[in-house]
Amino acid sequence: xxxxxxxxxxxxxxxxxxxxxxxxxxxxxxxxxxxKEICDLGIEVAIVIGGGNIFRGxxxxxxxxxRTHGDYMGMLATMINSMALQAALEAKGLETRLQSAIxxxxxxxxYIRRRAVRHLERxxxxxxxxxxxxxxxxxxxxxxxxxxxxxxDVILKGTRVDGIYTAxxxxxxxxxxxxxxTFEDAYSKGLKVMDMTAFTLCMENDLPIIVFDMDTVGNxxxxxxxxKVGTIVRN
Length: 235
Ligand code: UDP
Known about the structure:
Elements: E1 5-10, H1 25-39, E2 44-49, H2 57-62, H3 67-91, E3 96-100, E4 109-110, H4 113-121, E5 125-129, H5 139-149, E6 154-159, E7 180-182, H6 183-188, H7 196-204, E8 209-213, H8 219-224, E9 231-234
Parallel strand pairs: 1-2, 1-6, 2-5, 3-4, 3-5, 6-8, 7-9
Antiparallel strand pairs: 8-9
Helix pairs in contact: 1-3, 5-7
Bound molecules: uridine-5'-diphosphate.
Uridine-5'-diphosphate binds next to helix 3 and helix 5.
């Protein structure tokens, strides 16, 4: 296997499937199946999930609500998704732990790095909920931060597109996909990989990011086995 410990980042929106809002149970179950496949190979899996299918801080601002208040609501949204994913993974027979960056001890462990690493070593899937616990950040930043902290080999950013393109493939038919690109080139070409905070964290700490299509069955396993899937961004 190419990687031993990975951090999988899923967006909240990816959980919507064909729905307009919330969580599609079929999609959740499909993701759980994919994740189980790589766990069965002995890969240590940590997951960060977004909350955009339920709430985003910027939405609150548009409605006249204080941004910080909205961001905390967004972090709570990630907990709802994390709990849903936790249940789906357990339904497939995986052992899981949910750790929250905001204390809510009735439903999740607090985030404790050493404990998270121990869970991973014991083969449990660890889900990091509530983002970084701080407003003005995103779950991409949370994913980068946690991945660095637990010394993951790579961040796998599951999206609905199969990698990073020279231009938006939906608008420009001549756009081509990169198999790999350096952080520096991605930055100088203005390509969107993750938000700048997350991107910089990864670049400065030499943590590669692979952007790939999570909705294509088998992709996750292929990636882990070292097959060329998606786009890898590295130094
Ligand atoms: N959020 C935050 N701090 C964090 C992570 C998330 O304030 O460390 C809030 C922010 O309002 C964000 C929302 O939670 O809009 C949902 O997260 P995100 O937008 O990253 O979810 P995704 O786009 O991946 O679904």
